[in-house]
Amino acid sequence: MSIEKRAAKPPNRLLFFAAILLPPRFTPMSVRYDRRYRTLDKYRFIAGFLAIPLAFYAIFVISPFIQAIYYSLTDWSGGPIANFVGFDNFVKMWNDERFWDSTTTSLTLLVIAPVVTLVLGIFFAYMITAGGRHRKGQAISGVAGSSLYKVVYFFPQVLSVAIIAVVWGRVFNTNAGLINGGLDLVGIKGPAWLGGEYGLALIAVLTVICWSFVGFYVVLFSAAMGGIPKDIYEAALLDGAGRGTTFFKVTLPLIWDTVRTGWVYMGIQALDSFAIVLVMMPSHAMKVTPVFLYERFREGQFGYATAIGVVLLLLSVVFSLVVMRLGNRDRIEY
Amino acid sequence: MATAAAARPKTTGPSVKPPKRTFRPRTLVIAVVAWGLAALFLAPYLEMIITALRPKSELRDRTYLPSSFEWSNFIEVWKQSELGQNLQVTLLVAGGATLLVLLVALPAAYYTARMKFRGRKIFLLLVLVTQMFQPTALLIGLYREFYQLGMLNSVWTLIITNAAFNLAFAVWILTAYIGSIPAELEEAAMVDGTSRFGAMIKVTLPLALPGVVTALIFTFITTWNEFAMGLTLTTDPASQPLTVGINNFIGAYTVQWNYLFAASVVAIVPVIILFAFIERHVVSGLTAGSVK
User: Fold this and answer.
1) Cα–Cα distance measured from residue B100 to residue B110, given in angstroms and rounded to the nearest whole number
2) Among A312, A322, B179, B248, which is most buried by a count of CB atoms within 10 Å?
3) Cβ of A67 under 8 Å from any chain B Cβ?
4) pLDDT, mean of residues A109-132
5) Domain B86-288 adopts which CATH fold?
6) Are A100 and A242 in a shared domain?
7) How far is B71 from chain A (nearest CA, A)?
8) Per its UniProt record, what Gene3D superfamilies does this chain match (chain A) (predicted)?
9) Global pTM?
10) Is residue A88 part of a domain?
């Protein structure tokens, strides 16, 4: 009997359902080649393999997110009651000076931190992949010990932000800190970095953000640069391009996609610099929006805090869209 | 010189100017700057270790090196705080979340890599987009969920949430890794009579092991280091993870620096060891997901 004939005859319905419930190896031949069974079997497989992760997402990522949007419109304060208050929380935020203070700081970080980190990351990555002297007839080569540099720069990435903040809190400490100790040696009295002066605190936080993230981009960009074919460099070299020209005319355009993605990611990280600021400045000398959110959360103003969270999320979405649009260039294929 | 030049392989491609090993001041400057920067990057670690070993009386001193190393700081901090408890919580949470991610992400990644099902692109996109959510914005929603379930302060809460947040990355990396293993190998095994599941376990999994190990260690490290969720979803000092527990040494006015740093050293040692294992895979892991 041919397969077509078997498929043409609809299988016994009872057998059909039994086959759905039993493991595939018990599926009778008459059912196995039925089209409906094949479709169902496919989705059964999907359900078995993808249902659990999707459920996880739904319950612990998507659901808190949707709940956040709902509770941002209520006056929930931790108890069982949450009254719907419309956009009251957002109006309150608009009139709250502390919100604007913290958000100004966050936006400053959002603008400066990605630029500084990415520029440093690209520079280091370029030095690592192309900074070495020309040798053995190769158009480009990395500096000696490039893998060691990568590990050194990358390592903060695997440290907890809490520990990073703790260590840097000490480094920037007014009395016993490494930095003020160094300034002392050259005869300058070091300032209170984290003690309340806005500009100094901002510099301190920026330093820490750059320090902890630059390694990630060094690794990311050197991987991207490593993907550029060597003959392009050779061609540039033959045409008489120096290192600077090679970088701006060859390397940067070719890794631009990676740079843009990194920019978005770094912006989101800068906007979310919660732990660094919270732990480094226990006196809350400088606040960023997430810290302001956390304070409201600890005060029990859960509805208000959620509304701040929603604004924060919107900010990061807007930022991503702007960068994706601004950084949109024609993609160069190689 | 002539023999050295002759010994050099001739097939070096289109030869660019042969290097002259002349000393150039610029090279020296670059080397010094590079080493200096690397040292600058390393200085905070040194500061951490030195402060962890500083005697109490010298904590406010400006000297870079203490007069003696006080190893007893580590014992003191162990006795005086809930560090042991916190370490236990962190171990449970990181271990549990890693196991959960393995059980959930591996089948999902296997399926996504092997089957071209409808919605595959959307699934992968969803995975990426959730990576971009800031946990801080979700914290209160999560808090609400676990508050209603009565699960605040529970180890399970942290295991589940950490697993959920790391799932995306694990699925992404594993999908790329499994996708790079030829499906023909599995088909060959299946022709030889193995089931699909058997082929996955006996053929693909061993080949994908480096990727699996990288994803798992990454999950472990991220969970080990997680701070914001631990801070929000636990209130009782004994059920807080290590990173949050460390924070308790920082008071509003006084900071017990030596204990703080001794505890920090305890917290980063496992990370250093694990990172040493996957360091080589980090680059390929980071770039595996990029689709060119």
Assistant:
1) 16
2) A312
3) yes
4) 87
5) MetI-like fold (1.10.3720)
6) yes
7) 19
8) MetI-like
9) 0.78
10) no
